[in-house]
Design a protein that fits this description.
The chain is mainly alpha-helical. The chain contains nine helices and no strands. 31% of the residues are buried.
């Protein structure tokens, strides 16, 4: 990976050095640092960043929360970075299930997009493509141009099912 990745890592590290960085933002930056280090093939450092993210996730998840299901969302992301695939997916599914498909439609779609991203991160193309196919048929906010450009989906780019989703004209039609 190139200069852009190193520059991004420098920005993340600068943020983490800020004393007044909020806990949620700090957790997110540790996740981003882990991902950036993995792109740079610096696995040992990425593992340490994942451990640091876990500490911040535990701090956040111990706090009172308006929506306690957010804890499962953070848990899913963190466990994925720690390599705990099955536990990560289970937490991600609980996170989605906590949002009603009838009363919290927008929230549910956002959580399903996050779960699809988790599947992509964990290199689970079948589950990822199945969920994306469903999300492209409703006004979820996920679009083919987003799938083509967002690095979240990079690990899916060579998957035949993912390519078929991108190529299918009905997935690009207005809803």
């Amino acid at each position: 990976m190139g200069r852009r990745d190193k520059d991004e890592l420098s920005l993340i590290e600068a943020d983490l050095a800020e004393a007044d960085l909020g806990r949620l933002t700090r957790w997110r930056r540790w996740i981003e640092k882990c991902d950036s280090l993995r792109l740079l093939h610096r696995e040992a450092e990425a593992a340490l960043a994942a451990q640091e993210a876990k500490k911040w996730m535990e701090t956040l998840n111990a706090e009172p929360a308006f929506d306690v299901s957010e804890r499962d969302g953070r848990l899913a992301v963190t466990l994925a970075r720690l390599g705990q695939t099955d536990e990560s997916i289970a937490a991600g599914r609980r996170y989605v299930a906590a949002a009603s498909p009838t009363n919290q439609v927008r929230s549910r779609w956002d959580r399903e997009i996050a779960l699809a991203g988790l599947y992509a991160y964990l290199n689970r193309p079948r589950e990822c493509v199945e969920l994306i196919a469903k999300l492209l048929r409703v006004p979820s906010g996920l679009t083919v141009p987003m799938l083509k450009g967002d690095p979240t989906w990079d690990s899916m780019r060579e998957d035949a099912g993912f390519k078929a989703l991108l190529a299918d004209p009905k997935n690009s039609a207005p809803l």
